[in-house]
TrEMBL record:
InterPro entries: EFG_III/V, Impact, Impact_N, Impact_N_sf, Impact_YigZ-like, Ribosomal_Su5_D2-typ_SF, UPF0029_Impact_C, UPF0029_Impact_CS. Residues 149-201 form the UPF0029 domain. Residues 28-132 form the Impact N-terminal domain. It comes from Veillonella absiana. Belongs to the IMPACT family. Residues 67-88 are annotated as: Disordered. Gene3D superfamilies: 3.30.70.240, Impact, N-terminal domain. NCBIfam families: IMPACT_YIGZ. This is YigZ family protein. PANTHER family: IMPACT FAMILY MEMBER YIGZ, IMPACT-RELATED.
């Protein structure tokens, strides 16, 4: 089936795949960072309210969120810290990484030693940056679906190749193995040629069109 010339306009963006928490201690102050995936401001505000209730006894629960494929909606709060030392640096980290559809709360338990404005900026930025590095992330994008049937003799070689090239694919087993591969449009013809070479031409393809997909990100892409 020939593929349509029309490609879905689904914007590509990276977010986190689940709520995640990390802790950083400096000068006896605890900075507890909680990240939350969300797509609306109502969801972000409900998350912030929940964290405020959980850490009701903390001196500060500073917040930031970025929503939309291009981070169109942005907001931050210093929550009592000196102006510009918490929420804004947290939001700047989100903007730098490009990660979106995310809300973050950094909870601070004061340790008795003042950090100063510069120290606070560094502490809040570092807390969010480190949490984003460690959190599981996923790519939301559009991919071509290419389906092919291969025999069991060549399946292992093809599976290793697709895995090495970090393609996302599913497999169904019957008399042959049916592979459905998700790939960028620009990879379509090169991949078909490579699979033809691997199988000495004994492979057919069916292009199933484009689909909006979520792909786990296994390697850290957030800057340090």
């Amino acid at each position: 089936m020939p593929v349509s010339e029309h490609v879905s306009s689904c914007p590509e963006f990276t977010t986190i795949s689940q709520e995640f928490r990390d802790e950083y201690v400096i000068e006896k102050s605890r900075f507890i960072t909680t990240l939350y995936p969300c797509s609306t401001e109502d969801e972000a505000q409900a998350f912030i309210t929940r964290i405020n209730k959980e850490f009701w006894d903390a001196r500060h629960n500073c917040t930031a969120f970025a929503l939309g494929p291009k981070q169109e909606q942005q907001r931050s709060s210093d929550n009592g810290e000196p102006s510009g030392t918490a929420g804004k640096p947290m939001l700047e980290v989100l903007k730098k990484t490009g990660i979106t559809n995310i809300a973050v709360v950094v909870t601070r338990y004061f340790g008795g030693i003042k950090l100063g404005a510069g120290g606070l900026i560094r502490a809040y930025s570092h807390s969010v940056s480190e949490a984003l590095k460690k959190a599981p992330k996923e790519l939301h994008t559009t991919r071509m679906q290419l389906q092919t049937n291969v025999d069991y003799a060549t399946f292992g070689t093809i599976e290793r190749y697709l895995t090495d090239q970090q393609y996302t694919f599913t497999k169904e087993f019957s008399d042959t193995v049916t592979l459905t591969i998700l790939l960028p449009q620009e990879d379509l013809e090169p991949l078909k040629k490579q699979l033809q070479d691997i199988t000495s031409g004994a492979v057919d393809f069916e292009e199933l069109g484009f689909s909006e997909v979520t792909i786990p990100i296994t390697m850290d892409t957030a800057p340090s």
